[in-house]
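Hello again, I could really use a second opinion on something today. I've dropped the whole record in just underneath, so have a look.
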Amino acid sequence: MTRADVAVVACAELFRGDGEILISPMGYVPALGARLARLTFEPDLLLSDGEAYLLESPVGKPVIEGWQPFRKVLDTVVPHGKRHVVMGANQVDRHGNQNISAIGDHEKPKKQLLGVRGGPGNTANHRTSYWVPRHSTRVFVDHVDVVSGVGYPRAREAGLRYHDVHRVVTNLGVLDFGGPDHAARLVSTHPGVTVGEVVAATGFPLVTEGVTVSREPTAEELELIAELDPKSLREKEVPE
């Protein structure tokens, strides 16, 4: 078992209890986690190929079980809270605001990134989680430079009905926003990682009461992960 295997399971756990909704995992490890969840404890998840098809078999050659073009996703799924997306994040602050747009002053940024993309719509309309493969103070900052994904205070001010920033999975552990006034809280550290290491790698105060150790994969899950990722590409994404 490796840190990458634990991260895959942590991403799978993001979807526990979701049931029959569309999931959109962005990134290799979140995609493995989604497929693992579909194969084990959440068989009703709807897996998309990212374009127009829903896939039945997440192992081997996928079998198409449905047709759902992106326009239909935007018209009938996204506005009604029936989706769970896992996005990346260049910056996240203690109240769940996320940035994938630019680093530095918005008028003259030091680095131009993707732009806000689907961040505002995702966080306004349905459950959103984040995947951060390298947990550091550069990512977890006191204030994001640009708000791409909407955090809790802004969502409350705007009265967003379906806003739900669920969790953040990193190479060190799992965070949520269950602290006072939806402040960031450390839920679990991955095996071999201490609470102190996570706190030191985070650029804002973390709630650290009741921290557990992230669940290790079962023997069955390890076999499935190896089958889903025979070239072990997950190891390149998750540093020890």
